[in-house]
Structures are given as C-alpha cells and as structure tokens.
Amino acid sequence: MLSIEGVETFYGHIQALHGVDLHVEEGEIVTLIGANGAGKTTLLMTICGHPRAAAGRIVLEGEDITHLPTYEIVRRGIAHAPEGRRIFPKMTVLENLQMGATVADPRYFDEDLERVFTLFPVLKERQHQRGGTLSGGEQQMLAIGRALMARPRILLLDEPSLGLAPLVVKQIFEVIREINRQQKVTIFLVEQNAYHALRLAHRAYVMATGRIIMTGTGQELLANPEVRAAYLEGGVKH
C-alpha cells in the first residue's frame, strides 16, 4: 500500500535519512522504533511532503507521491497525528474535528463525528471545550480523532504515548488496535514505547541514525536480544 524506496532527506546540509526502505501493506499495523534523533519523525514528515525527499520515492498504491503538495497527499488517504499533538488550543474540540474533516466528503461528517465520539467518549462530553484546556491524554485523543476525520486509509501516528500516564497509554494503544481491526484503517506507528508498540505491530522496523537496521514481526523483535538490550530492558513496559 505504502512503499518507501531509498528515501534520503536533508535539513540544509545535514542528512537525516539515508536510503530508507520500508513498506506498509493494507490492513497492517507497522511500527518504527528507535532512539531519540534516529530520524523517525523526519520519515513521517517526509511522507507528508515536508521536508521533501531529496532522493528516492514514496509510492502510495502505485502512485508516486514524492513531490505532491501535502494537501494532495492527504486527499489521497494519508492522515498524520503529529508528535506533540499540535491541536488548535484556542479552538473547541468540535472545531478541531471540523478542521480535520476539511478534506473529506461533507456528506459523511456526522457519521465520522459519531465514529470519533464512540472511540473517545470524553471528546463528546467536552466537544464545546477549548482544546488547550484538555488533559494531555485528552489532547492526544483529539489529535487522533482529528486525523480520523479526514477519512484516511492509512494513519501515521507519531509518539502517541509521549508524556502520558500508564493507564492512558494502555487506553490509547487499545484504541489504535480498534481503529485497525474494526475500522480497517492501516496504521504506521512511530513510538518510543517499544514494548507496547511491538506487541501491537504485525511488522516492525528499527531505525538508527537515519537508517533501517533491523526488521521483522513485532513478536520477533520483542524476542530479539539486541532489541531487548537497546529498547526494552530497564525500559518502561507498563
């Protein structure tokens, strides 16, 4: 469904991605783990067109989208819930969700809104509350809900557990599984909480210094001694 082929990305003269190759098949949850600064967020941003890939190709269902403007990439079915949530803090919950729906067919707005409220009942309760007054977990739910309002076929999630309490982390990962299983949305997940991410994933990749250094099923990487030593042992499992 989504193929990353030899992608290289730069910030000025500094190369952030070095010939990255990976693929996400329809219906999968694919996880990308790695340390801070490995290039994970840069890869998601490059998929969305900012920054642009300096070399290589990004292909969505056979179409090269490498050089398309971001709004065209979104129209083709890719939505991004970014690191740090980046909701509109002065807008209400409902207004944030309306912003997410701007690229979707308006005929489905009510249906999509109810779908988000079913996933996140607290957002329905707080729909007229300003986004900036929500808790961190509620803001993360809003960021994911806003992305879902675009009716994506593939959802890019960047560090959805960052800074959240263990119980909220568990809830967020359960919702991600439900989005994939029940709503048939393909998921590409970037996550530092390797334990939860690998348990959730059908397949996974490990990134270091802008390169893919390992791949396998989620269970294979959970059991891999190198992965355990680098990302799991002594880490947070909750």
Automatic annotation (TrEMBL):
Q: Which InterPro entries does the record match to this protein?
A: AAA+_ATPase, ABC_branched_ATPase_LivF/BraG, ABC_transporter-like_ATP-bd, ABC_transporter-like_CS, BCAA_Transport_ATP-bd_LivF, P-loop_NTPase
> Which protein, by its recorded name, is this?
High-affinity branched-chain amino acid transport ATP-binding protein
Return the similarity comment. Answer: Belongs to the ABC transporter superfamily.
Q: Which residues form the ABC transporter domain?
A: 2-234
Q: Could you confirm whether the keyword Transport appears in this record? A: yes
Molecular function (GO) terms for this protein are: ATP binding; ATP hydrolysis activity; branched-chain amino acid transmembrane transporter activity
* Lyase keyword on record: no
What does the entry give for GO biological process? L-amino acid transport
UniProt xrefs under Pfam families: ABC_tran
Cite the entry's keywords alphabetically: Amino-acid transport, ATP-binding, Nucleotide-binding, Transport
